[in-house]
Design goal:
Layout (H helix, E strand, L loop, with lengths): L3 E5 L2 E2 L5 E5 L2 E5 L7 E9 L3 E11 L25 H15 L6 E2 L14 E8 L5 E6 L6 E3 L8 H16 L14 E8 L5 E7 L6 H10 L3 E8 L12 E6 L3 E5 L2 E5 L9 H15 L6 E5 L5 H7 L4 E6 L2 H13 L5 E5 L2 H4 L11 E4 L8 H10 L3 E6 L2 H12 L3 E9 L9 E8 L1
Parallel strand pairs: 4-6, 7-22, 12-13, 17-18, 17-20, 18-19, 20-21
Antiparallel strand pairs: 1-5, 2-3, 3-4, 5-6, 8-9, 8-11, 9-10, 11-12, 13-14, 15-16, 21-23, 22-23
Bound molecules: S-adenosylmethionine.
Length: 441
Amino acid sequence: MEKTYKVKIESYDVNGYGVCHIDKKVVFVEKALKDEEVIIEITNEHKKYAFAKIVKILAKSSHRQAEACPYARYCGGCDFMHMDYETECEIKQNKVKQTLKEFNYELLDIIKNDNLYNYRNKIMVPVRKDEEGDIIYGFYQKMSHDVIPMDKCLVSNELSNNIVSLICRYLSVHNVSIYNETANTGLFKEVMVRNTSLNEYMVVLVTTADFEFDALIKLLTEEFKEIKSIYLNINSEKTNVVLSNNYKLLYGEKKVKEKILDNYYLVSPATFLQVNHNQCERLYSKAFEFAGLDKNMTVIDAYCGMGSITLNLARKAKFVYGIEEVPQAIDDANENMKLNGISNASFICGKCEDKIREIVGKEHIDLIVVDPPRKGCDQAFLDTVIKMGIPKIVYISCNVATLARDIKILESNGYKLDKAEPVDLFSLTNNIETVCLLVKK
Ligand SMILES: C[S@@+](CC[C@H](N)C(=O)[O-])C[C@H]1O[C@@H](n2cnc3c(N)ncnc32)[C@H](O)[C@@H]1O
């Protein structure tokens, strides 16, 4: 192939790249919009396809817009800032349609997000030093571990941005040792801030060793009354996993409080919480609508976290079993059950693929809700669900590729995908949440 070409963009791929063809080769063009005429440069060539970047836009799409964030061109966080929201939703809807195209089912319209900015309730920011020795913080560049320095992230909560900024000013003024990833030396690695819709904030300072942060804690809690909890997380490993299991409470409460639909939840730092509160409520409501709950139903909520789905199910069903592998999340779930005066639920700690077997033969299950991580469900878990012959499955997925794989297994074993609905939980990024109903034929 030549290095540069003048092309017209024909369509989008599932990740939102512009697609065109050159000499029968499919070319995926980063940040190019449908119908645009562009000069592209080939960046990566394979036998049947290639990747390219735009060198010049000759004819611009009316759906192109100026990127609201000055870091959008470099930062690996947002993928869709260069297009209007209508186009973003069209790409996401199409991603689900294409990935599930082999099934015969009803695809409902994407549930849109009303707040494209400041929607994230969790920010995780690496802190490093630049070549001049100044402290920088920001997100990683795509496919790299280079931190793109920023002052705030537009999709994250405003106050959380301010908390991170104050922490980094403190580290700079007090000359606190900063982590160097290449050499695996230095102390301060990362900051996590989590906030809830009840305006409670939790801060986690990630370091390689124990350290006294009394002056920083005083500064933070005087400046931000909303901070209810501060932890130190000591992680001396050179690893991509940011948080270790070694938490030390430095200030305030062990957990922050959240409200999701009809229940209150106390959330530990290691517990999973959906990052977009408003869309999470819409997602769960859709899942409950698909479930068609009534007071005679016995339900399993697999991959249940702190019971955010379980306890809302319990209000409408006879009994709910929640299964989750993270012990702190199960601890939260049990506490949350008491907090909400719920007694018709029970939480089991362990891997779903193992623990579901404890329920087999014990009683009839009318419905199972599954909400696994990106890698989807374990095959042994699906085998047990199939063996149990549970009449209805509501599957919530944050990765439509593994969702398709799991639906295929279920469809080959007596289930049918009835309907699916994408929910935009992660606006401006190419991630999409999908909720599905499967029924036993
Ligand atoms: C996408 S989160 C969903 C949590 C919860 N349903 C919610 O909406 O807040 C997936 C959860 O599955 C848990 N998990 C991952 N693999 C698991 C496994 N094999 N068995 C049980 N739980 C698992 C994670 O710890 C996490 O809490």
